[in-house]
Design a protein that fits this description.
This protein has a two-stranded antiparallel sheet with strand order 1-2. The protein has one domain (3-40). The protein has helices at residues 3-16, 33-40, and strands at residues 20-21, 29-30. A hairpin with a 7-residue loop joins β1 (20-21) and β2 (29-30). By secondary structure, it is mainly alpha-helical. 50% of the residues lie in helices and 9% in strands.
């Protein structure tokens, strides 16, 4: 059973890419618009 260990791995993965847990629902991750714009590059 993956259980809590799987959740911990997933949390570390998303935090590595600057996602943060939603203050409303910790199982929802968010990223800032500025960070998303850096990922897509200019004019995308």
């Amino acid at each position: 059973m993956s259980g809590v260990g799987g959740i911990g791995r997933a949390k570390r993965f998303y935090e590595k890419y600057d996602f943060v847990a939603s203050p409303v629902d910790p199982m929802t991750v968010m990223i800032s618009v500025a960070e998303a714009a850096r990922w897509t590059g200019p004019g995308e």
